[in-house]
Each structure stands twice: as structure tokens, then as C-alpha cells.
């Protein structure tokens, strides 16, 4: 399969996944397709659907945060499972914030801003990457370095655009 056909197949998979997510009931996600923000936050400004971004690196698993332990960073509110995790975050937020503002890393590699699912994640070289779902994550995992490189090249040109415009 040539690169263009593969790109179209992956893009079709991403669009189908995002469309399916749009019709399924969702309590945690509040993905705004009209927002031009570089941060993927819900209507209350909470990032990563309230999951503790420090726990991905300290516990190695998605861990729901608690509003009792929160911190704000660059316009987003982050929730943590403990005061210790909140303190680690406030000491070095850049170490813990997700890549690409919490949008799907594979989507960004394909010039799309798709919601990031906190349960479809991977820490690579100390950086948290989210994907829109676990099926898309499987494709992303096939070439992590290449997909990160593509996403890093694409991100500057799409980060200020609304997802609906991509």
C-alpha cells in the first residue's frame, strides 16, 4: 500500500471514529469542534477529562483526578488524585501536560484536531500522548517516531484552527 493510500485509509478511520463518538453518549468529554484553542478542554476548562496527568508517569495508568487537588496552567484546569501529584505538576508543568494540547496525536499527524481519550495514551520520552480511541492508537503505535515527527511538523499550522475547519 502506498503512502497516500495509507494516509487516506487512516484518515477515513479517524473520521469514522470521531463520527461514532459524536453519536455515543458521553459524560466526560466535551470536545468543542468550534473552538480555536490549542488546548483540548471541556466547557469548564478542565483538561484531559479530569484525569491526573502526573499519574501517567508516576503510576503508569490513567487515574481520575479530584477537584480537591487542582492547578491551573496556561488557561486549563488540571485535576490530580493527590496533593503530591498536584505539587509535582506545579513544579514542572511542561513535563506533564499532554502533547498537542491533549488532542489526538494521530489526528494531529494527519492534520486533524480530534478529541483525546485519556484511556488511549502512551508516554514516550517523558511526554504524554493521547489518541481519539484505542483503535486509532493501534495505528499510531505502528510508527510512533514517524507519527510524532509528522504531528510536530503539522501542529504549528493547525493548533489555532477549529477542528471543524480541518
Automatic annotation (TrEMBL):
Signal peptide: 1-30
Keyword line: Signal
Stored NCBIfam families: YHS_seleno_dom (NF041384)
Name recorded for this polypeptide: YHS domain-containing protein
Organism annotation: Inhella proteolytica
Organism taxonomic ancestry: Bacteria, Pseudomonadati, Pseudomonadota, Betaproteobacteria, Burkholderiales
